[in-house]
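Try it yourself: sequence plus 4'-deoxy-4'-aminopyridoxal-5'-phosphate, in.
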Amino acid sequence: MFQHIEAFAGDPILTLNEQFAADPRADKINLSIGVYLNDEQRIPLMGAVAAAEVRLAQSINPHPYLPMAGLPAYREQSRRLVFGEGQGERIATIQTLGGSGALKVGADFLKAWFPQARVWVSDPTWDNHKGIFGGAGFEVGTYPYYSPATHGVAFDAMLAALRALPAGDIIVLHACCHNPTGADLSQQQWRELALVVQERDLLPFFDIAYQGFGEGIVEDAFAIRYFAEQNIPLLVASSYSKNFAIYGERCGALHVTGKDADEAQKIFGQLQSAVRKNYSSPPAYGGRVIATVLEDQQLRAQWEAELTAMRVRMKQIRSELYAQLKAQLPGGDFEYLRIQQGMFSFTGLPVAQIRKLRDAHGVYLIESGRVCLAALSSAGVAPVARAVVQVMT
Ligand code: PMP
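Structure, out:
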C-alpha cells in the first residue's frame, strides 16, 4: 500500500542540527538554529511565565475544550498587543497554534474567499511561507526583497514588483525582524508601501513572529498599526513563541480587519469555520499562561522588562561581533550586523566559506549564510569573529 511513498528530504536546518549534535568538538558553536538562547546557551524560562504557571497550578481544574476561537481574554490581549487600543470592534481575532497555525488558518480562510488570488512572499523568506500557502492551494510567487550589495531592503525593486501585481493578490510581509535577512523597511518605506497597496488594491498578510525583538513592542508593530489606521484591510499572524519563549506550547493569534463590526463578525465566523476543519479548537495551557501575564499589571511589567533584556542582549552581541570583526579586518563591511534587526543576519558569506567555518572551526551556519545571533553567547563572540576572519582572508 505504501510502497510509492518517497522519503521526506528533511529540513536542511534540522539535518544540520543533527550533524552539530554528533560533532565531538567541545568548542563547537551552533548559529544555525531559530530560537533565542540566553548567555548560558539555554532557552530561557521567563520569570513572568514561571510566575503565571505557579498561579495556574494553584487551582487544579478540569480540562474542557476551549471555544474554536480560543480564550476570550487571550484574544483581547493579543489584539491590543498588535494593534494598540481602539478599533477592536472591527478586528476579528482568534487564538492559534503558534504563528504557523495563524498562517495556516489565514491561508485556508483566504483560499475559501479569494480563490483566484495569488500569494507573493519576499525573496528570500521563511521557507514555510511557501509550504503553508502552497499547501492551502495557492500559487506562490516571490517579490524582490533583499539587496546583497547594501545588506538592506531592495526597496525600489520591491515596490516596482508590487506595483505590477493584479488587484486582489495577497502579499506576505514581515512586520519586523525579517527572517532570514534581518533587513527591515523604515517607517517612511512602510508609508510608501501602504500607498502602493491602496493604489493596487492588494491584500497584505503581515507575519509578526518577533514583536519586541527589534526596537520594542510598539515600534515593531508600526507597519501593522499604520496600515490599519489607513483603513487598509489586512491579516496578521502573530506568534508568542519567541517573545514569551513558549515555543512548544504553540501560542499565536490570527487577526483580520474588517471595515466595520458587522464585517468583522462575519469574518470571525469564517475563521472559526477554518479552525473547525483543521483542529477544532486550540490547546488551552499556553493560552492561559499568556492571558494571565498580559492581564496582570505586575506580571506584564515583568514580562516587558525581560523582553527588553533579551532585545538588548541581541543588540550587544551584534555590536560586540561587529567591533571584533572590524578590528581584525578593517576593510570588511560588517555594518549590517548593527543595522539589521532581530535574531538573524545575512552574512553574505559564500557556501565554500560557510563549509570551512563548519569543518575547520566548528561554527555552524546554514548554507544560505543566515546567522542566528540570538544563539551566540558573549563567550562565543571572539572565537566566531576569529573563525570568520580566517575563512574570509
Ligand atoms: N513566521 C516567521 C517569520 C518565523 O520565523 C516563524 C518561526 N520561527 C514563524 C512564523 C512560526 O512561528 P511559530 O513557531 O509560532 O509557529
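One thing you can check immediately is this: Residues 96 and 253 are 5 Å apart (CA to CA).
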